[in-house]
Amino acid sequence: MAGSQFEIDLKGSPASVPGFSVGHARLERHPSGVSVVLCPPGTVAGVDVRGSAPATRQLDGLGPGFWDGEVHAVCFTGGSSFGLDAAGGVVAWLEEQGRGLKLAGLTLPKVPTAVIFDLPLTNGQGRPGAELGRAACQAAGRGEMARGSVGAGSGATVGKLFGLAQAMKGGVGGACLRAGELKVAALAVVNAFGDIVDDQGRIVAGARQAPDSLALADTAAWFLAGGRREAFHPAENTTLGVVATNAALDKNSACKVASLAHHGLVRAIRPVHTTFDGDLVFTLASGPVEADLNGVGVMAAHAMQLAIYDAVFAAQGLPDLPAARNLESHRK
C-alpha cells in the first residue's frame, strides 16, 4: 500500500467491495427492520465482541482458533431476541439461490446474526421475522446503499443515559476507503448507550437534558461527576459493525481486523463498550489483494468511524425523538 493514493467514499458501504451486496427491509407499521450483507463465494469471516450484552446467532466458530468454513451473509436486525427469527429468512433465500456450504447433497448457508434492542419504540410489537429477512436479501444490490432510518437502524437510538425520553435517533451508515487496489468498507448500525462525538470531541447526538430540550447532557461528564446508572434489563444498546474487504485474510487475520475496527467505535462513541452495550464488529474478507494487516486494520477503524457518523447524520427523527439534523438546525 506504500505510495498508493488514498481515497474516501462517504457514500460507500460493503457493497463498494467487489462481490458484496447490501439490502434493507423495514416493517410497515413499526420502526424496526433488517439489514443484510451478502457475501461472494469463499468469504472468510472473523468477529470481535466488546460489549457486555450481545444477542446473536451463529457466532460460535468465528473467533480465532476455530475452523468454520466460509460465511455467506451477515444479518443485522431489530426486535431483540425475537428479531433473530429474521435470519431464518436469509438462510432460506440463500439456500434457494444455491449459496452455502455443500454437504451430503445439501446447501447449508452460514449467516452470523446480531440484533439491537428497539422494542420500546414499537411497544414490543416490532419483531422482524423470516419474511423481512428474505425481503432484505431480495432488496440487496451493489449500488449506493440507503442509509439513515432504514433496515436494522429504523429504530436505533443513541444517548440513553436518562432513557429513551431524552435520547436521540441513531441509524445505519457506511463508508469505503481505497488505497490502490485495496478496498476496506464498513457498515454500522448505531444504537449506542453513549453519545456520538466528532473529531474535536464535540457531541453531535446524545443524551438530552430534558425530554422537551435539545440541550445535550454529556454522558461521560455525568459519570466523571460521580453519577451512577443501574444496569438495563435486558441491555438496550448495541452498535453493530461489519467490515468488508478485498484483502486476502485468513480467519485469525480477519478477527484482528475486527478488533482494530473497534477503534472507530472508540473515537465516535463516548462512552462505548459499556455494561449496557452489546457492541461487536464482523470482518468479511474475499479477494486477492495482498495487504499489510495493520494497514487494513487502520483503514477499517477509520471506515467504521465514518460509518457511525453517516448513520447518525442521515437518520430521520421520530416524534419526541430528534435526530442530529434537528440539533444542527437548532444551533444555526
Describe this structure in words.
Helix 2 (86-96) packs across helix 3 and helix 5 (251-268) packs across helix 6 (293-314). The chain has helices at residues 80-83, 86-96, 130-139, 219-224, 251-268, 293-314, 324-331; strands spanning 6-9, 21-26, 33-38, 44-49, 56-57, 73-77, 101-103, 106-108, 113-115, 157-158, 168-169, 171-179, 182-191, 195-197, 203-205, 238-247, 269-270, 280-289. It is α+β, with helices and mostly antiparallel strands and 332 residues long. It is globular. The mean pLDDT is 92. The protein has a single domain, classed as L-amino peptidase D-ALA esterase/amidase.
Topology:
Elements: E1 6-9, E2 21-26, E3 33-38, E4 44-49, E5 56-57, E6 73-77, H1 80-83, H2 86-96, E7 101-103, E8 106-108, E9 113-115, H3 130-139, E10 157-158, E11 168-169, E12 171-179, E13 182-191, E14 195-197, E15 203-205, H4 219-224, E16 238-247, H5 251-268, E17 269-270, E18 280-289, H6 293-314, H7 324-331
Parallel strand pairs: 6-9, 16-18
Antiparallel strand pairs: 1-12, 2-3, 3-6, 4-18, 5-9, 7-8, 10-11, 12-13, 13-16, 14-15, 14-17
Helix pairs in contact: 2-3, 5-6
- Extract low-pLDDT stretches: none
Treating each run of at least 4 consecutive H or I residues as one helix, how many helices?
A: 7
CATH architecture: 4-Layer Sandwich
Can you give the mean pLDDT?
92
CATH topology-level name:
L-amino peptidase D-ALA esterase/amidase
The total strand number stands at: 18
Count of folded domains = 1
Shape: globular
Gap from first CA to last CA:
42 Å
- How large is the share of residues in beta strands? 25-35%
Task: Summarize the amount of helix as a percent range.
Answer: 10-25%
How do the helices and strands follow one another from N- to C-terminus?
EEEEEEHHEEEHEEEEEEHEHEEHH
User: Structural class given helices, strands, pairing?
Assistant: alpha+beta
Under CATH at level 1, the class stands as: Alpha Beta
Counting copies of identical and different chains, the oligomeric state is single chain
| Biggest sheet strand line-up | 1-12-13-16-18-4
Q: Main β-sheet, in a few words?
A: 6 strands, mixed
Rg (CA only): 18 Å
Fourth CATH level, the homologous superfamily: L-amino peptidase D-ALA esterase/amidase
